[in-house]
Amino acid sequence: GVDGATRAAKARDALALVGLAAAFDKKPHQLSGGQRQRVALARALVIEPAVLLLDEPLGALDLKLRRQMQDELKAIQKRVGTAFVHVTHDQEEAMALADHCVVMNDGRIEDEGPPERVYARPKTRFSATFMGESTILAGTVIEARNGIVMASTAVGPVSLPGASTAGATVALAIRPEHLVLGEAKGDVPLGTATVGDVVFQGSFKRVLAASTLDPALQFIAKASASATVQAGDTIAISCNAQDIILLAD
Q: How would you classify residue 42: left for phi > 0, otherwise alpha for psi between -120 and 50, otherwise beta?
C-alpha cells in the first residue's frame, strides 16, 4: 500500500538492518544460505510487526553459520525492539538467545523463566533432562527438617538443601559440570564408577561412567580437556550438596 520509491527505500533500510545493504540488486541464487536467512528476516521486519515469530529459523544452517546468525539475531532484536518469539529444539540456541525461556512438553508448559534459572534450577524432571544433560538419581526421602532433605538412593544416603516430606519419591538431578571425578572430592560422595566412554569436545571431555553400586545408573560428567581419564578406569565420583537439584519424581 505504498508507492514504489517508498517501497524501495524501506527495502534498502531493511536490508541494511540485517547487514545486506550491498545485496539489493542480487538474485536469490547469488546469495549464501546465511544471506538468504537474513533476507527472510528483513522481509518479516520491513512491515514493522509488533511481534515476530521465528519457527526454527536456523535449523538448516551449519554450526558456524548458526552461531553467527544467533549473534546477529540478538543484535537485530535489540536494535528494532520488536518482541521475538523464537521456536527451537536446540537447547543451546534457546539459552543463548532468550531473555525469557519457556520449556514445552506435549503442549504443556513444563518450566519458564530466565534461561539461567531454567538451567540451574529446573522445576521438573523433563526440564532438567531437556535443557542440558543431567545425571538423575532416584530417591526416597528419609528425613526432611530445617531446610535439609536426606534421601535414600542407589549410591547411599544423600543430604542436600531443600524442602520435601518423609516418604516422598524424589529425583536428584546433577549437571555434568558439577560431578567431581577422582580424588578432589565434593562433600557428597557418590561411590565409584567404571568409565565407559570419553569423548573429546574441544574445551572439555564428556565422560560416561556406570556406577559400580548400580550399573543401571549412568553418570554424565564434564572433565577438563587435559584430564587423563580413559575408558575402563574406575574412578571416585562426588559432588557438592548445593549443586544437586531436588525434583518431585
A: alpha
